[in-house]
Structure formats: C-alpha cells, structure tokens
Amino acid sequence: MVQSIAFGVFVIAFAVAAIRNVNIGIVLFPAACAVGLGLADMTLEDVIAGFPLNILVLLVGVTYFFGIAHSNGTIQWLVDAALAGVGERDRLLPLAFFVLTGTISAMGAPLGGLVTAPIGMSVAHERRIDPMLMALAMGTGLSAGAFAPTSLFGIITLGTAKEAGIAISPAVLFGSALVLNLVFLAVAYVLFGKQRQQASREPQREKAAANVGIPLSEYGQSTLTAELEPEADLGKRSRPTAVQLLTLAAIGLLIVLTIVIALLGGEPDIGVLCFGLGAALALLEPSAAKKAMTRIDWGSVLLVGGIITYVGVLSELGVFDSLGEHAAHVGAPLLAALLLCAVAALVSAFASTTGMLAALVPLALPLIADGGVPGWALICSIGLCASIVDVSPFSTVGAAFTASTVDEAQRPRMTRLLTWWSMSLVVIGPIALTVLLILPGKIFS
C-alpha cells in the first residue's frame, strides 16, 4: 500500500508539473522529502543525500565551459568555418549541418546545437534545399552529439547507469547514437533530398537575418544557445581571434585528456576537467565568463536532481524490487523492454527528454537484475528512443525548426511532416533498437 501511494505521488507530481509547464525536478524534490519523511521513515539528511552531486558537477562544469566558448564567439567561428568548407556543394550542406550541429550538441547541452537552426534553415531556403531535409539533418546531428560523454544525455545515461552499478562504455553509447542517426539521415536524404523549393536561388540575406535569434524556450530546462549575428556572411570564414584560438585549444585539450585518462585505466571526470579549463578561460577573459554564468543549464540540474532524489526514496521503499518481482512473473522480458522504450519515445515527443532518461532508467533495473535483458543494451535503447523523437513539432527542437523555416507557406507542411516523422519513430525506434541492441546483447551475453 505504501509503495503504491509513493509511486502514485510520483506519477501525479510528474503529470501536474508537465501540465502546468513547471520544472518537474522542482516539484519532485519537495515531494521526495515529504514522502521520505512521511512514508519511508527516512531522515531529511538521508533523502537529500540521494541528490546526484556527481551529475551536478558534470552538468555545471560542462555547460559553463562551453558557455564561455559560445560567449567569446568560438562556436560562431566553427559555424562559419563549416559553411566556408562546403562552399557551393549543395547536396553536402545537410551533411555539413549534421556534423556541425552534432559537434556543438556534444559540447555540453544538446539544445546548444539549436544555434545552427536559423542559419541552417536560411541556407536551405537560399540553396533551394527542402527544409524538411535540413531540419532532420540538424535534428539527427543534435541527437547523435547529445550522447557524447561530454554532453547532457550522455552524462545522464552514463551517470544513472553507474549509480545503478551497470557498466556502459561511453564509446558504445555514442557509437550507437551516431550510427542510428546516420541511418535516419540517409532515410531523410532518400525521402526529401530530391525535392527542391520553388524559391529563387538568389541570396536573400534580409529574410535570413530575420530568422536569426529566434527566441527559444525549453520546457523544464534551460537552453544553451548563442546569439548569431544577422549580418554575418553565411559562407565567409574569418580568422579566429587569439582568445578563440586558446578556446579551441582548450576544447582539444579536454578531448585529449579524456581519451588519455581512459586509456590509462582511469575514470576521467569531465566535469572537473571542464571546471579547470573554464577557470583558465575565465581568468583570460572575465567578460565572457560572466556571460557564461547565465548559460549554465540549471534547469537540467534541477530536473535530474529532483527526479533522481525521488527515485532514491522509491528505492528505499522497495518499489523497484516489487516491480522486479512483477516483471519476473510476466515471463516476457523482451516485450517489457520494448514497452519501456516505446513509453520513452512517446512521452519524450511531448515532454522532457531529460526527464524520461532520469525516470525510466530506474524502471528498467528490475528487468536487468532479473537477467532478462542486458543492462547496457536496455539503457542505451531507452536513451536513444527518448532522443530520436525530439524533432516532434510539439517539442522545443521541432518547434525551433518550424519557426526557423523562411518560407511561411512551408511551415504547415513542416509541422505535418515532423509530426509524421516523430510518431513513426515512436514505433520504429523501439523495434529497431530491440532487434539491433537488446536481442543480440541477450543472445551473446
């Protein structure tokens, strides 16, 4: 009875916060304290101890460091450099924006990749590229980069798995996300690559400028976006400043240190490394550091912190042990895994992907503990299913792409096609990942 009440409070608080458009973590944290004190006989200190400080250090350190890179113009320089490299080869532009958005998404907060949305959609209009193809190129790039060990979804997935005692290789997680999203990009090329807009090929700088700096809002969490200069030449690459060169060197050093420490058998703490490199850049240019303070993704910290704290209370009450017993009686662990992935995809299409990652991974633990499915494969699949539907027009990512479409007549079509695409992935994604990851992992484990 107590377990049912605690789980019911979790569901109700989650739903009410979602409906009222309030950060779910902020609602769940006091709820965790109330349930822990009232039903679980826990002390307040024990409840608060469930707050994931290690994930907090990672999120704050990473978003602060890359916030400085946004503030001092380094990210904008990378955007300009990529466009200059592609030149007039139109068919390569969506692929270029896939790489560019994925790279920026890997630099901390996935929604940071949305800085490319206004430019990408403007370039698509100018070069008569189907806006749906460009939107999907950036959306798949964002999803792929989000699972890098330096980015939000990768941090959360790896962090929650580690908390549960499940080992997941960062390379496997990121590699799976990259391959899956490249396949989706290839499908997008097949479906939309041959269609051309009827708009003139003449440059339309005024329309492109009008779509730069479109305000974005994220339900339940803050975004890490940068203001783009409307008058910037979309194909021109300027020389990086001395500060930008040092920032690029710091980004490279972060990557090298992470790889070297891992190869030496250590566990690189990316959050601590980012704090150190961020502090060095802050001393170099204090003004950029002050701007970066506003880019720290506190919304995600609160979201994940509140959910995981409540999950700790549920764990103390034995809720997940009970679910494990029920799962054992089902006798179809693969079906249960498939359903968990489908729920992750469906809910994430309308709500917070971050919240789905933090909430559903613990629900998968009974299946994993029972030996029914391999832990690494199921957790990777849940994370990927929650991310690949983010191009839904009902989410921040899809809404940004629709709003950034230059031709207003194309926007209803974009809404319709993005809805079709994301809802298709609610079905296709879980099936594909069950077949490609979970089932082989179960057979060969």
UniProtKB/TrEMBL annotation:
Superkingdom field: Bacteria
Domain Dicarboxylate carrier MatC N-terminal residues, every copy: 5-146
Entry keyword Chloroplast: no
Membrane-spanning intervals of the chain: 6-39, 51-72, 92-121, 133-156, 168-192, 245-264, 270-289, 301-320, 332-365, 420-439
Pfam families found in the cross-reference section: MatC_N (PF07158)
Keyword annotations from UniProtKB, A to Z: Membrane, Transmembrane, Transmembrane helix
Name of the protein in its database record: Na+/H+ antiporter NhaD
